[in-house]
Design a protein that fits this description.
The structure holds 2 protein chains of 2 kinds. Helix content of chain A is 32%, strand content 15%. Chain A contains 9 helices and 8 strands. In chain A, β5, α7 and β6 form a beta-alpha-beta unit. In chain B, β4, α4 and β5 form a beta-alpha-beta unit. Chain B contains 13 helices and 15 strands. Chain B starts with 10 loop residues before the first strand and ends with a helix. By secondary structure, chain B is of the alpha/beta class. Helices cover 37% and strands 20% of the residues of chain B. Chain B is globular. Classes of the chains: A alpha/beta, B alpha/beta. β2 of chain A pairs parallel with β10 of chain B.
């Protein structure tokens, strides 16, 4: 029987970890707080890389700024820690220049969905062949807990001390409407589903997007009914409903302990990718030959 | 070093400055353009959209200039020679990721066809109000490199030179053109390929040792080879201040080493970057310092002044940044006054004044037209008074 974490488990020390080949273990320990879900997503991403059959040299990890923005720096890949909100635009440039690379953007909700929202929707519209993993912790954690574009209505943060008056984005709905080839939402509780979804994203041709809901005990949970590390994980376990065919217009997250939240692999469709269309364009133009000036 | 391929055939052409810029970029090996249309630079994007696919390249439109500049840095690490072109409002939006290119040491070329400002200003008319922005616009103290063309030929030549400099120095390089130079039509000579020097970046060899003795970022050296994505180097490239392994650090020693490396690689080689032109300086008593299209007004002013008996000469700054301080000081030692002629309220006036050993006044002109040469002559008369 696995001992409950709440009761305290045995201390185990290992010299090597199965993920060492993809993790810069010399950089550990990481900066994330106890109870954070980002590490779980990193583990899933690493396992998906190992299972992908794509050589590690071709996997590229690109992040923006914030807690999730730190992921790339811990991965023993060609990794890029870019500017706040610009990871998708940076990745678009690299993906066009080097279409054979397997590029994954991993960043937070504020980074991708708010300051970088314009880059996100336009990359989805172009269907750039990229994977984008958005860890949503409902607030700006790195800066100490301020409200953002995914903070639920009424939620308390340091910049919404009387309750948030903004309606949050339903980002899977937004990205699907913009034209992405693949759209999913899971939580940090759904480790196997997250890993499987990332594996699928690496196969999908086109813009592949997944939102992963994550606990953030110190700067979000504390003030919003999830003060302990496991509180939000229990909420995910008890209230998540898997519905791959959900009506995406109806899957906004309230993060209220009594409300359901819908998870699943919602969209998986084949559209021409940006790189394919650019390649076709170059082929057509070179077939015409260079026009005389 | 390599030879140009796929560009315009050698010969003489009658063309527009903005078109000449694109042809220079292609000959320099640029195959990636990311941009957002903006007057008066849009012909560069339009021409690139026609020409880049013909030579196997991509010219893509991003959602804004913030995204354009970010895409350039990403494509640069993909191994491509990259460029964008913009004007004032777009240049402001690019500042964020110009800093990214600087700290990540990503070679890229940014063309700014300057227009009248501030804000939206007069999009269709000339200005030179972004000269200080090219040096100080991005936060956190950057050392930058900028070329300033005065003719269609120079727009072509300096674009090639900007790529070569960017590749060697691994840093963003600006071509600070303006609406007059961008939109004028003039003769362009495309030289035979053996006359065109093309510099290619040194790529980090994935088989090379990578340890404390052989770090990815050797801050003791001015130039380090660039880790290109997907080649097996497994480099971390960070916008945070980073140590010799590329890992983020808050140590003061790392901040000292990294920032001094980034600025030192340019400052230590400023003399090889500087380009300037001296006209009528042999007997000159007064010197007009100018650059870009304003230097054409300055030359007209010098001819008027000489006809009136004032022995005037021209010092034309072809590389405003890094500022050619020794050149200005040397020239200033043998004249009785300098006039800095520019289409702004006085920008390059300041470093000239800081380095000149003679009285310096500005011949400044509100953006919207080129400077009336008479006003430069009047400024000369003021500095003599």
């Amino acid at each position: 029987m696995i001992p409950s974490v709440r009761q305290g488990g045995p201390e185990v020390k290992v010299e090597h970890h199965v993920n060492d080949s993809v993790i810069r273990s010399e950089r550990l320990p990481n900066i994330w707080c106890p109870g954070c879900g980002i590490g779980i997503v990193v583990g899933a991403y690493v396992r998906a890389i190992q299972k992908s059959g794509i050589p590690r040299d071709r996997h590229i990890s690109i992040s923006g700024i914030g807690c999730t923005g730190r992921v790339s720096g811990y991965l023993n890949l060609d990794s890029y820690h870019t500017t706040h909100g610009r990871a998708v635009a940076f990745a678009t440039g690299m993906a066009v220049a080097r279409p054979e690379l397997e590029i994954t953007v991993i960043a937070g909700d504020g980074d991708l969905g708010v300051i970088g929202g314009n880059h996100l929707i336009h990359a989805a519209r172009r269907n750039v062949d990229l994977n984008v993993i958005m860890v949503n912790n409902f607030n700006y954690g790195m800066t100490g807990g301020q409200h953002g574009g995914t903070t639920p209505l009424g939620a308390k943060t340091h910049t919404s001390p009387y309750g948030n008056v903004e309606t949050p984005f339903n980002i899977p709905y937004l990205v699907a409407a913009a034209g992405a080839s693949f759209v999913a939402r899971w939580t940090a509780m759904h480790v196997r589903q997250v890993t499987a979804a990332i594996s699928r994203m690496m196969e999908v041709k086109g813009f592949a997007f997944m939102e992963v809901l994550s606990p953030c005990p110190p700067t979000f949970g504390e003030f919003n009914g999830f003060p302990e590390a496991l509180d939000m994980m229990e909420y995910f376990r008890d209230k998540a409903v898997v519905d791959h065919n959900a009506d995406l217009s109806r899957i906004g997250v309230t993060a209220r302990p009594e409300d359901q939240l819908v998870v699943g692999n919602f969209v998986d469709r084949r559209r021409p990718t940006y790189q394919e269309l650019l390649g076709d364009l170059r082929a057509r133009v070179s077939a015409q030959g260079v026009a005389k000036k | 070093m390599s030879k140009p391929v796929g560009g315009l055939a050698p010969g003489e052409y009658f063309t527009m400055g903005n078109f000449a810029c694109v042809e220079g970029a292609i000959l320099a090996g640029c195959r990636f353009y990311a941009g957002y249309p903006i007057t008066p630079s849009s012909e560069i994007f339009e021409r690139a959209s026609v020409r880049f696919p013909q030579v196997g390249g991509n010219a893509i439109e991003m959602e804004d200039e913030v995204g354009s500049m970010a895409a350039l840095v990403g494509a640069s690490f993909g191994g491509a020679k990259v460029m964008t072109a913009t004007s004032g409002p777009g240049f402001s939006l690019m500042m964020e990721n110009i800093g990214l290119a600087y700290i990540m040491e990503a070679p890229c070329v940014l063309v700014n066809v300057q227009r009248a400002g501030p804000s939206t200003g007069i999009p269709t008319l000339v200005g030179q109000g972004d000269m200080m922005q090219a040096k100080w616009g991005s936060h956190g103290d950057l050392e930058t490199i900028a070329y300033s063309p005065s003719s269609v030929q120079e727009f072509f030549d300096f674009t090639i030179q900007a790529f070569n400099t960017a590749e060697k120095f691994r840093t963003p390089v600006f071509v600070m053109a303006d609406q007059v130079v961008g939109m004028m039509w003039e003769r362009l000579r495309v030289p035979p390929s053996e006359e065109i020097e093309v510099v290619d970046r040194r790529a980090f060899d994935p088989a090379a040792p990578l340890d404390t003795e052989h770090p990815l970022f050797d801050y003791a050296k001015d130039f380090n080879p660039m880790p290109i994505a997907g080649k097996g180097v497994h480099a971390n490239i960070d916008s945070l201040t980073h140590d010799s392994r590329g890992y983020p650090s808050t140590d003061y020693s790392v901040s000292v080493n990294m920032t001094r490396h980034l600025s030192g690689k340019i400052k230590n080689h400023a003399r090889e970057i500087w380009r300037w032109e001296e006209r009528y300086l042999d007997d000159a008593d007064f010197v007009v310092v100018s650059y870009g299209s304003a230097a054409r007004s300055a030359l007209a002013a010098i001819k008027i002044a000489r006809a009136e008996g004032i022995r005037a000469g021209l010092l034309r700054l072809m590389t405003p940044w890094p500022f050619p301080d020794e050149v200005v000081e040397r020239v200033s030692n043998r004249v009785s006054g300098m006039v800095v002629a520019e289409v702004n309220a006085g920008q390059m006036l300041h470093p000239v004044r800081e380095n000149a050993r003679c009285p310096v006044v500005g011949a400044n002109w509100a953006p919207g037209t080129l400077i009336d040469p008479r006003s430069i002559v009047e400024a000369m008369e003021a500095v003599t008074a």
